[in-house]
Amino acid sequence: MVIAIDGPAASGKGTLAKRLAAHYGLPHLDTGLLYRAVALTLLDAGFPLDDERAAARAAEALIADRLADPRLRERAMGEAASRISAVPAVRAALLAWQQRFAGNAVGAVLDGRDIGTVVCPDARVKLFITAAPEERARRRHRELADRGETATFDVILADIKARDARDASRATAPLKAAADAVVLDTTELDADEAFEAARAVVERAILH
Ligand code: DC
């Protein structure tokens, strides 16, 4: 069974994806990490983020080891990932990587921006997780503070809005809900309630 989970930055899709994967015994891939790793590879090698050829080469050469680097979780890397993710050649290189992961025998849970629309259009379950930008900024603010990163709420909110706009407006595989995705707004839900709502969607899909 493949479960595709999409949504904007800090919507809670990652937490949800991890919990669903653990619950159903499926491997999980946070596809945002792939884009973050390409951005980090580029910056570490001294290339600017707008060097599309270098970004494409970094995506083609991506190795799994890179996905464990703690720097990938930093705020600046989310922004950098969003920028390089608009490059079609980067997306093409990462598409194969993600489809291989999803194609294993047991299935998988993948979360990102274009899983239900492009990476796994035939996924058994498609969820689109969203929440009001202010609530997402509050969650991200708390998460960054827990990790010792200092950024004000206003800066994070501005980041989130800019990232939403960029991710949703790019020409290749923009952020959007698949026509057959179930949209789950978690603004008023805590993590347990969001999980129960998502699990109910999966259970319904299994019964069909
Ligand atoms: O989910 P995240 O915040 O780690 O993602 C970082 C950026 O990577 C996001 O702003 C856009 C890009 N991304 C993408 O274009 N497609 C995906 N499937 C996942 C992430």
TrEMBL record:
EC number: 2.7.4.25
Chaperone among keywords: no
Biological-process GO terms, alphabetical: pyrimidine nucleotide metabolic process
GO MF: ATP binding; dCMP kinase activity
GO cellular component: cytoplasm
Record-annotated Cytidylate kinase domain positions: 3-198
Short name of one Pfam family: Cytidylate_kin
SUPFAM superfamilies given in the database record: P-loop containing nucleoside triphosphate hydrolases
Location within or outside the cell: Cytoplasm
Enzyme type, top EC level: transferase
Keyword terms, alphabetized: ATP-binding, Cytoplasm, Kinase, Nucleotide-binding, Transferase
The UniProt record lists the keyword ATP-binding: yes
Catalysed reactions listed for this entry: CMP + ATP = CDP + ADP; dCMP + ATP = dCDP + ADP
Amino-acid positions noted as binding ATP in the UniProt annotation, renumbered to this chain: G7, P8, A9, A10, S11, G12, K13, G14, T15
Family stated for the protein in its record: Belongs to the cytidylate kinase family. Type 1 subfamily.
Entries under NCBIfam families matching the protein: cmk
Record's protein name: Cytidylate kinase
Organism: Methylobacterium planeticum
